[in-house]
Design a protein that fits this description.
Structural class: mainly alpha
Largest sheet: none
Protein name: Disulfide bond formation protein B
Family: Belongs to the DsbB family. BdbC subfamily.
Number of domains: 1
GO molecular function: protein-disulfide reductase activity
Shape: elongated
Helix content: 55-70%
Number of helices: 5
GO cellular component, one term: membrane
Radius of gyration: 16 Å
Pfam families: DsbB
Strand content: under 5%
Length: about 140
Amino acid sequence: MPWVRTYSHYGAWVVALAALAGSLYFSEVAGFVPCKWCWIQRIFMYPLALLLGIACYREDRSIVLYAIPLSTAGGLVSLFHYLKQKVPWVGQISVCTEGVPCTGEYINWLGFITIPFLALTAFVMITTLLWMGRKRTE
């Protein structure tokens, strides 16, 4: 599938934009107050949307070297947050002592899809797309 390699950075950018828009929708429209770990996930996602957009405009594939560490770290934060919500003994680790509880679930679609799960999915998709398109075959 050579087209995947050719357009993978565009796909990663679209995923990052969708995640950015989704997080803004949940906080600004739906009124969900982000917890500490949600903010950390945003710290990793928001620059990805900007950097990948610039890289797409400039056709710069070297962005992979900078974007994969961001998306991987964000994915690990999302995974921890998701486990904190869904695994009881992980939820007992007290890292959110003030403000919104990090174990709270504003959404719980189909019994497993929460906001950290959506973020984890986006980070995995971005990482996978960037990895697949790291070198374009001509």
